[in-house]
Amino acid sequence: MIRVELPPHLRGLAHISGEVKLDVQGPATQRTVVDALEARYPMLRGAIRDHVTQKRRPFLRFFACGEDLSHELPDAPLPDAVASGAEPLLIVGAIAGG
Amino acid sequence: MSHVRVLVGTRKGAFILSAEGKRENWDVSGPHFAGWEIYHLKGSPADPNRLYASQSSSWSGQITQRSNDGGKTWETVGNKFVYEGVPGTHQWYDGTPHPWEFKRVWHLEPSLTDPDKVYAGVEDAALFVSNDGAQTWQELSGLRGHGSGPHWQPGAGGMCLHSIIQDPSNPDRMFIAISAAGAFRTDDAGRTWRPINRGLRSEFIPDPTAEVGHCIHHIAMHSSRPNVLFMQKHWDVMRTDNAGDSWQEISGNLPTDFGFAIDVHAHEPDTIYVAPIKSDSEHFVPDGKLRVYRSRTGGNEWEALTKGLPQEDCYVNVLRDAMAVDSLDKCGVYFGTTGGQVYASADAGDTWAPIVRDFPAVLSVEVQTLP
Known about the structure:
The complex is a heterodimer of chains A (98) and B (371).
Chain A: E1 2-5, H1 8-14, E2 20-22, H2 30-40, E3 60-64, E4 67-68, H3 80-83, E5 89-93
Chain B: E1 3-10, E2 13-20, E3 26-32, E4 37-43, E5 51-57, E6 61-67, E7 75-77, E8 89-91, E9 97-99, E10 104-110, E11 118-123, E12 126-130, E13 138-139, E14 160-166, E15 174-179, E16 182-186, E17 194-195, E18 216-221, E19 229-233, E20 237-240, E21 248-249, E22 259-264, E23 272-276, E24 292-295, E25 303-305, E26 323-325, E27 333-336, E28 342-345, E29 353-356, E30 362-370
Antiparallel strand pairs in B: 1-2, 1-30, 2-3, 4-5, 5-6, 6-7, 8-9, 10-11, 11-12, 12-13, 14-15, 15-16, 16-17, 18-19, 19-20, 20-21, 22-23, 23-24, 24-25, 26-27, 27-28, 28-29
């Protein structure tokens, strides 16, 4: 079981509150986790990854276990603590402004 | 008894304002999609409870929403807008080739007859259509495939397709406008398009009378007279009487002919409304006075409408999709400002009152007249 924490605007879009808990088939990677997330919440398709390129949207980033995973390859294994459900994968909206 | 529903898109959500036929007491619903930019929302003429909304953000891109109950509840529908074939390039601000990239939907135009059919005008400029209630979208690529596409250039707000007008007397004919490419017409239901910009003059482009490259801000039509279009260009208010084959300037005595919004009275095809803005560098009304100008002669002769509108220290803008009319008698006129006010006139513009004063910046206003 993988835990995912979404930024507020995506929780609103998906009509959820709190963490999402997902069963992911195969190894836990950014790709498999987002695939599972989109399968359960189709309204998130295109909102985290570009529809065509499947690349992470530039103003969203992935964090876990105190590390910025945003530039890891999408098929790279997520940390064991995320794969085991001990730690959540954080999908974070970039904060900008002044 | 008739009533009206005003659909308001803002920088931070959508709102629905409802009133009875007298248009005196308003109920405000929203914000819907709080925190998201709502460039446009519009109801189907064939089923007024079917609404479509364009929702977007810099973080998560384009979302499309649909309601089947007049905006009480919404469901997320298709947001996959993919250009047909190899997208190619248009001109960037510096004149260099730039790949076509989808950014957002500026305008949603439901079919006049089919609630499940809706057109989307997008940035970078293209026209999409859905025949399944916005679940899936296909590009009408004949527009972008017009030979002039590589020469189109973005306006200051982006290269957006912002105006879509269907001819109620001819289902094969439609008009669109792009900033800053110009106006185009199809006579074969979107398969092929021709530029309709003869008579436009834009001093800021290399060839002021070029076939394409004009920064059109908005166009409007009265349904009883589909060959007559009115245009607010970057500078100049224009009119065509032959479906765009040629245009004449009708700016007349306007205090400035820069602006964004333009619309036509519901029952008087020669009564038109604009909201003059001082200039392209000062995007606010002239002299600190918020004035709608009305022409009852199809242009050239304009009168300022000021009763109920602030006449000092006002520095707001009225954006291109932020003016609309209802079809009650007397015709109601509505507009929203970047200062977050939505004004209504229940007497064709003679007097005005704010429905709300403190919304986020208003991006679009549409009106539904309901039985």
